[in-house]
Amino acid sequence: MQKIGILGGGQLGRMLLQAAANYPVETFVLENDPECPAAHLCHHFVCGDIKDFDTVYHFGKGLNALTIEIENVNTNALEKLENEGIKIFPGSHVLKTIKNKILQKQYYKQNEIPTAEFIVTENLEELDSRKNFLPAVHKLGEGGYDGRGVQILNNLDDLEKAFDKPAVLEKLINIHKEIAQTIAINEKGETALYPPVEMLFDPVLNILDYQFCPAELDKRILWKVEAIALAVARNFKSPGIFAVEMFIHKDGDVFVNETAPRVHNSGHHSIEGNYSSQFDMLWRIMLGYPLGNTNIILPSIMINILGAEGHTGDVKYDGLDEILKMENAFVHLYGKKQTKPGRKMGHVTLISREKQDLLYKSNKVKRTLIARS
Predict the structure, then answer these.
(1) Pick from 146, 264, 104, 253: nearest CA to 197
(2) Mind listing the pLDDT tens digit for each residue in 63-121?
(3) What's the whole-model pTM score?
(4) Which residues contact 347 (CB under 8 A, 6 or more apart)?
(5) 283, 20 in Cβ contact below 8 A?
(6) Which residues on neighbouring strands pair with residue 212, listed in sequence order?
(7) DSSP structure class, residue 156
């Protein structure tokens, strides 16, 4: 039986472990919170810092393979483990590139992958000399996550929100739709593409609010989206799961925004909406099994359940009974004991043949299921 470790014990690790129950695998989790969502579902839990070299190295030493549920890990330790024959999904070189938004944007440019025009700013002083580049989006080079580390700078008044650290200043694009395309690549280089999803974000928190699958795209745009996503993933030359987030311009141009080298929020619907979920697929890749079927079973909408504004403390869920009575509604609570405003506490996936039915029910979910203290 293979021994596979997960760096990080949040909800992504939790859902990975739920899928792991179907396979002959011994699971290990490294996370510094013994009460994290994944802690009670793995065979072995190790309390430790995923950013610490020695901790990550010793955690991975006796395993067959490692994967991540967040990019902010010690990549030097992973590189050393890789050199000693332990498989890393995706490779440490991929994580080094993606965890730094500056390197990530340069990767797109080097591989001729369409992305918004950008410049690198080292500090506020340098940004001040680039005022003619506005309106733009300022993205912190390292450390941003779930909307943090991103600021929209429409005009000079917004410069006070900018970062005094190495960052990417990216031209603002007139976005028609935001799309995510998930791609699976196994060790033989074979690929499987999930149907793209359309994502809608909370304008205040800048966190995914809900998404619809499959995205409604003209065939010409769909082909472009798939070709660009494949180029992003293949050029990494590493097996794994990649969620490629893209902007579609009003004139039909497609630009890559960011890539997640792991299972991702934009793929949660696949648990009920697709024959092989993104979590099932990653286990297939890591264990050397055939790639799964990515076709949709039924169209779906996935709604994030975020901690309610003004509520911090032990979580209570209002409206749970009512949502569980809904036909084809699948509730996933992440087991987090504490709620706070904007924190991801769970998600609900709805499946139906009718888009209007999905939209109506998704609004009901948003109004009814509340994570409060």
Answers:
(1) 264
(2) 999 999 999 999 999 999 999 999 999 999 999 999 999 999 999 999 999 999 999 99
(3) 0.94
(4) 268, 302, 303, 304, 305, 332
(5) yes
(6) 198, 301
(7) G
